[in-house]
User: Fold this.
Amino acid sequence: MVNDADDIIAYETGRMPEKKMLKFFQKLVDSGLVWKMQGSYGKTAHDLLQRGLIKFPVKRTYDYYGTPVPTRAEMKKKIKKVM
Assistant:
C-alpha cells in the first residue's frame, strides 16, 4: 500500500522519474488500491499493463465495482491458450 503522499505528489506534478513511476504503479496494482483511486490512475495502470511495462497482481484484487482483476497466473494461462 502507498504510505507516502510524496509519491502521489511527485507523480501528479510530473517530477517522478519513469523507473520510479513504474515501481509506484506496480505497487498500486499489487495492492489493488489503483482501482479505487481517481480514474486517471486506473487508466494509466491499464495502459501500463497492456504495454507490458508492469505486471498483473499475484493475488486477487477487485476494481471499484467489485469485478475481479486478473491475476498474473490467469494472464499466463490466457496467453498460453492463444499461442
Q: What stands out?
A: The mean pLDDT is 91. Residues 23 and 31 are 12 Å apart (CA to CA). The chain has one domain: 5-82. The beta strands are 61-62, 68-69.
